[in-house]
Amino acid sequence: MLKFETLIMASSTLICDTEPWKELRAHVEDINKTHLRDLMNDTSRCQSMMMEFDGILLDYSRQRATTGTLNKLFSLAEAARVKEKINRMFNGERINSTENRSVLHVALRAPRDAVINSDGKNVVPEVWQVLDKIRDFSERVRSGAWVGATGKALKDVVAIGIGGSFLGPLFVHTALQTEAEAIECARGRQLRFLANVDPIDIARNITGLNPETTLVVVVSKTFTTAETMLNARTLREWISSALGPQAVAKHMVAVSTNLKLVEQFGIDPNNAFAFWDWVGGRYSVCSAVGVLPLSLQYGFPIVEKFLKGASSVDQHFYSAPFEKNVPVLLGLLSVWNVSFLGYSARAILPYSQALEKFAPHIQQVSMESNGKGVSIDGVPLPYETGEIDFGEPGTNGQHSFYQLIHQGRVIPCDFIGVVKSQQPVYLKDEVVSNHDELMSNFFAQPDALAYGKTPEQLQKENVAEHLVSHKTFSGNRPSLSILLPSLNAYNIGQIISASCEHCVKTNMPPLAIPNLKLPATFFPFVQLLAIYEHRVAVQGFVWGINSFDQWGVELGKSLASQVRKQLHASRKKGESVEGFNFSTKTLITTYLEASADVPSDPSTLLPKI
After folding, report:
1. How buried is 445 (Cβ within 10 angstroms: 0-12 exposed, 13-18 middle, 19+ buried)?
2. Neighbours of 59 (CB within 10 A)
3. What DSSP element (H or E) covers 420?
4. Residues whose CB falls within 8 Å of the CB of residue 397, separated by 6 or more in sequence, listed in order
5. What three-state secondary structure class fits 15?
6. Which strands sit side by side in the sheet containing 190-194, from one edge to the other?
7. Dmax over Cα atoms in the chain, in whole Å?
8. In 3-state terms, what secondary structure has residue 57?
9. Which of 356, 381, 384, 159 is nearest to 254 (CA)?
10. 384 noted as active-site residue
11. Which keywords does the record carry (predicted)?
């Protein structure tokens, strides 16, 4: 009886039991009586739903919402104590209660003189100690002061990691690959990411590389992640077979906190770069997880600008009033779309090929964070949380899945555009440039979704009667637009170029150059990343869930360990498949029989392409 009473008491604290939630539920009926065609005719409403932050323009006027909706959402945020939860996060309180951890990825990009406490201790000096170590090490590698076992410079880096140890750094790397300054700083270098345990991924990553010039970065906090460590052992063998076992210490480094296992693996513990348990994997791109491989590729000054950009958003998120707070507005609108309008998916549509890996990264940040079925107190939720996130750069997506978005399911869309292309192209006598052609679609698609096309309009265009219904677009499909000024560093001029050249010639860390001070400039796409991180947190704060654990990934891993033992027993000892249901037993047996040519005690075999 006591357990039942406790459950009732806990469930009474759910956000769906509050008056603001109930008011929003009732408000849906009013919104359903409107159409975006009419809402978009209200100029004052549209003006109130556009805002600018540090050169980034947000337009959410094509959301199925009124100013009254926003006011009700702000009341909901107050009822959910969102501001209090933001403060608790920044104050280092253990808001990840199921793992008893702080959530302090904001400390990873905080200024050197900032004070951010965890358990009463300022963690910022520790963060900068690691950053300084990365800066020193990366510049020694880039300048040729640190060389491989045969004395050759290490020009190629393979970063081994999975999930958050892969998706975030890959996104940043992809965005930088076509940025002018980053190109210069990375000239003659390669950065590759090995994530999948599939041997095909291994083959693709080592193809064309020379072990003599390759540095491998193994990213695993505990140094026990099954896929990562198997891939690490594979590349260790690749290096050892070519250069001898003693070469491992010169060609492999680690991002880990388990120095004992790092040393047992053959990596010098002095070449292990720490991060902390208050850094969630999907929020770790600003830690050594991302900063080390990116600094090896582009140099620490480029990455420092990346950190400054994210930090600027952190300060905005922490201090701006909710009415002018970009992550808060985006988070509340997502809650409105999911919990009240019933839209279960979100399309992330960057009109920039440089942002092609943004949607996969946010897919993990969002779905692993907010894909929960119970409250932070463990109470089953009577409402859905999280979205199904997917996306593709425009205009590719238009020729893939936009058909469904326009005439099938209603899926709120985030359109992300860039004013200036990283690589502009102009052709004489063309009507518009390539980038203008791209942006023509960026501006057109949100209106097509909002307004649609009526049967009356089609009839006026003399469309054949039997095609009218096929060519009708209902419209009233919500979206928002984010316009970035560029994906380039701005107002840098020759300072970074001088820094890169000076470092190579003198082997001096960039920020030690006398009288050279980097201006506080950064990459807008990094701000975009931080905005989405905090947007996801706001959604979780409102829903009352823990957005910072991920117990859902554990069950499959546990079952996989049972299968692993079975495959080992069947391969090595010829044991039959037992202990599984009929379906799984049949699948495993078929797999084993069809791959019976795999030797029971194989000698080492590495991929060859």
Report:
1. buried
2. 18
3. strand 413-420
4. 347, 349, 391
5. helix
6. 190-194, 156-160, 214-219, 252-255, 272-273
7. 80
8. strand
9. 159
10. no
11. Isomerase
Assigned token pair, 291: 């900063």
Neighbours of 584 (CB within 10 A): 15
Which of 181, 368, 387, 392 is catalytic? The answer is 368
Which residue type does 171 have?
F
- Residue 517 among the catalytic residues: no
Cut 0.85: pTM above it: yes
**Residues 593, 609: Cα–Cα separation, whole Å:** 27
> In sequence order, which residues have a C-beta less than 8 Å from that of residue 149 and are 6 or more positions away?
212, 243, 244, 246, 247, 250, 251
Nearest to 352 by CA among 397, 306, 416, 444: 416
Find out whether the peptide bond into 472 is cis, omega within 30 degrees of 0.
Answer: no
DSSP, residue by residue, 463-497: --HHHHHHH-B-----EEEEEEEESS--S-TTHHH
Spatial distance between the Cα atoms of 103 and 93, rounded to a whole number of angstroms:
8
Q: Which among 420, 445, 432 has a CA at the least distance from the CA of 352? A: 420
Which residue in this structure is represented by tokens 């190579």? 504
From the number of C-beta atoms within 10 Å of its C-beta (0-12, 13-18, 19+), residue 424 rates as exposed
pLDDT above 70 as % of the chain: 92
Choosing from 121, 399, 565, 568, which is the catalytic residue? Answer: 399
Q: Are 512 and 444 in contact (CB under 8 A)?
A: no
Provide the pLDDT for residue 506.
Answer: 35
Active-site residue flag, 368:
yes
Please give the full DSSP string across 211-273, using - where no structure is assigned.
Answer: GGGEEEEEE-SSS--HHHHHHHHHHHHHHHHHH-GGGHHHHEEEE-S-HHHHHHHT--GGGEE
| Per-residue tokens: 566 | 């079975």
**Mean pLDDT per 10-residue section of the chain, whose length is 609 residues:** 39 85 98 98 98 95 98 98 98 96 97 95 97 98 98 98 95 95 96 97 97 98 93 98 96 95 95 94 96 97 92 96 98 98 98 97 97 96 96 96 98 97 95 97 98 97 97 98 78 29 38 31 80 98 97 92 96 96 97 94 87
Tokens of 219: 């990213």
Q: Choosing from 324, 420, 470, 557, which is the catalytic residue?
A: 557
DSSP track, 306-328:
HHHHHHHHHHHHHHS-GGG-HHH
Cα 8 to Cα 5, 15, 76, 98: the distances in Å are 5, 14, 22, 21
Q: How far apart are CA 82 and CA 572, in angstroms?
A: 56
d(CA 110, CA 114): 6
Angstrom distance (rounded) from CA 63 to CA 331: 13
